[in-house]
Design brief:
The protein is mainly alpha-helical. The chain contains twelve helices and two strands. The protein folds into two domains: 32 residues, no CATH class; 206 residues, Growth Hormone, Chain: A. It is 76% helix and 1% strand. A two-stranded antiparallel sheet has the order 1-2. The longest helix is centred in the C-terminal third of the chain and has 30 residues.
Length: 296
Amino acid sequence: MSLFISAELGQLLVSKGAKFVNLFYITLIMVSLACTLSFFLPQDPSSLQILEPLNQSSFPLSRSLRQLMFDLYQSYKESWRVIKQAWKSKGLQVLSFWWAFNMAAMPMVAAYGTSLFEAIHSVSTYNGHVMAATQTVACLSSFTAVPLSRITDQTGGLGYFLGSVLVGSLCMVMAYANSIWIAYAAYVLIIGVTDLLFCLLVVQCAKSISNGQYILVFSFNALGGMIMQAVFQAIIEIIGISVFTLYFILGIHFFIVGLLFALICIAFYCKTRSIVLVPIESSLPTYGTFSVLETS
């Protein structure tokens, strides 16, 4: 809802002649306010488990340096044990691969959409409305993910493979689009499909975590995707390509990710004799009174 309102508000202000620098100041104020409010959010006790070894170790000044180094080593050894336990599921490892590599390119697809629209039709006044439409489609996709969750569990990685191929194909459509309306439609579909897959992905990953370290796993997966995105974007900026070529490269990226993910799923099947990546019979893990599906 917030992204929908911001898109429509931004389009309205631009239509009324507002300068982009004023939009920047509004955005800066709202982001600063959100950052301030984040300090008042309640703390998740389960996310502190990985830090317990460090918190339980007290290092008095009277101890020798060797003893301090040994205690520190034991603390990090215990932390590494928690991390390995969180990723012990083979299905989670497969899903984490798709998560990281999808996140490496998807933010670029979303971020450069307006640049592509500008290159196709520089005087179009519908960009803000299209951004608002993408948020509506994303919201509907999130609700669709609920009934599709069990089907995704039973089909293994098929949905993610088809999703990568579909997103790659839509990126190719945007790369060669001469009509602004075709580019609009492809962009909205890309956002809708990726949001649907991401909702399903979060639920499946949560089912595969045995020690309750949801924040740890999700943070590491997101971090891996952001690192690869930074490298990917740096290479793109150094090369200095056009926005049309960028979407062509992004399309190739999704095709390659889909192919590699399919090969990994085949290897998973050969090893386990099952296409199921997460245990179907297990219920959704809970935290407090809310299930993972309800909070995602």
